Amino acid sequence: MTPLATAARYARLTWHLSAVSVHRLTEYRMDFLLGAGGLLLRVICQIAVIDMVFRQVPRIAGWHYHEVLFLLGFSLLPRGLDRMFTDQLWILARKLVQNGEFFRYLIRPVHPLFSLLSERFLYPDGVGELLTGAALTWYAAEHLDLSLSAAQWLLAPLLVLCGTLILAALKTLFASLAFWTTSSFPALYAANQLGDFSGYPLDLYHPSLRWLLTWLLPYAFTAYVPASYLLHGHTAMLPWLFVVTAGLVMLALVVWHRGVDRYEMTGS
Amino acid sequence: MKRYTPFAAAGLQGLLQYRSTFLISAVTATTAVGVQVFLWRAVYAGRDSGLLGGYDLPTLTTYVLLAQILGLVQANRVDEEVSGEVQRGDIAVSLLRPVSYPAARFAAGLPVSLANATLVAVPVLALYAFLLPLTAPTWTGVLLFACSAALSLVIGFGVNLLVGLAGFVTTNIWGVRVVKDSVVAFFAGQVVPLALMPGPLAAVAHALPFQGMIDGPLRLLLGRYDGLLGAAGILAAQLGWALALTALAAVAWRAAVRRVEVLGG
């Protein structure tokens, strides 16, 4: 099959399986409301803290109130998208290798990673996060009288996509460790938790922490770098964003494949 | 009393099975403290006056750090365990035992709190004490804090038990817990001290039981009260809420047991 035909096939499958997940959402409406509502409340608490901060000072580390809100909102976009499509990786990290159930994903006629992820698309929490993020970003942009150039308009969706890929690659990377250690849940959880730093301007943090969040666990590229570009026109880090995205995705896929090759059935 | 020691032992054993949860708790607390501390440091840097809601920077840093640690100690997993038992139907077995179920749960949750306090809280505390300037409390403060922290454990247990019993009403207890975690933490003052909240929000927070979980004990520790009467007031409010929540949990438990229907098998 040509690469184009393969891509088309996976796109069609994704569309189809997403539709199945939408059915599930309408079936369990309370689940959806609780999942989406829970994340909305978390964001409201975060905004309340930011409000309290800006009652005391007009700006922190050079950022104004609505700029911080814009950054927070933007950080939720890739997070929400990633959560919508890749949360099955949590289950891999937690127990799929441990209880030997992972083999199910190897015997289907699609890429094992896709096979795993596609078991459940459109996690309700992710949908809630994405909508909250979009509303917050929009609200902040309105108040900032933000006027984006044509290039910024064109790049903005690409930046969200790259952020999503970075998050998904990090998740794949840490979840794949389970192939060696049988459970990598603590590692994945710890890595994911550090992502909480990315909802605020990185200028706040100690340089060593900033370095860690830029080059080791590159959460900086999921919110801070794109938001600095869209708000202040900072372009110095933009080329790195694409390099880091490509590099990290490749690394994650290599580790994933190595891991899958190592995987042995439980034999029962 | 003696009847409940096996539950405490079982709680501890269950916890030690999953040692990785200590790592998870430690990373979560460290990250949360980091975000808040850096945020407030930037606020102090941007102001002329060195006081925020009466707190100077080292005291606020101490508050933020200890708030996370208290939150950690109160995370006794009772909500998770109770709702899990309800969902799986195991609650039927618990009902057969000749002990009070809420008391048995409290006994099982206590060692979880203690283990978190020693294995997670101490390293996190040591890390930040090494990195940042903190305020050392007075002996009076420590003494008052000890009483207050004990009461806060009872309040935290009551809240968690009530959330766990919600498992009788809804199956999505995970969603209820996410909501509870953020709302309780916020109004308890785990994120920001009540003194820094704007007037109406602070009024709401003071009227809720949750302030007795974090803000109350830490105000006593850091000496942020008006004389002996003020300290007694904080403790009295805590005691009142602890009793009220215990009573409420007992009533809810009775109502829940009457509702319970377990599939035979």
TrEMBL record, chain A:
Transmembrane segments: 32-54, 60-77, 153-180, 211-231, 237-256
Alphabetized UniProt keyword annotations: Membrane, Transmembrane, Transmembrane helix
Entry annotated with the keyword Membrane: yes
Pfam families assigned: ABC2_membrane_6
Keyword Membrane: yes
Domain of life where this protein originates: Bacteria
Protein name in UniProt: ABC-2 family transporter protein
From TrEMBL, chain B:
Swiss-Prot/TrEMBL keywords: Membrane, Transmembrane, Transmembrane helix
Keyword set includes Translocase: no
Pfam families in alphabetical order: ABC2_membrane_6 (PF06182)
InterPro entries for the chain: ABC-2_transporter-like (IPR010390)
Residues spanning the membrane: 21-40, 60-78, 106-131, 143-171, 183-208, 228-253
Domain of life: Bacteria
Entry protein name: ABC-2 family transporter protein
Taxonomic lineage from the root: Bacteria, Bacillati, Actinomycetota, Actinomycetes, Kitasatosporales
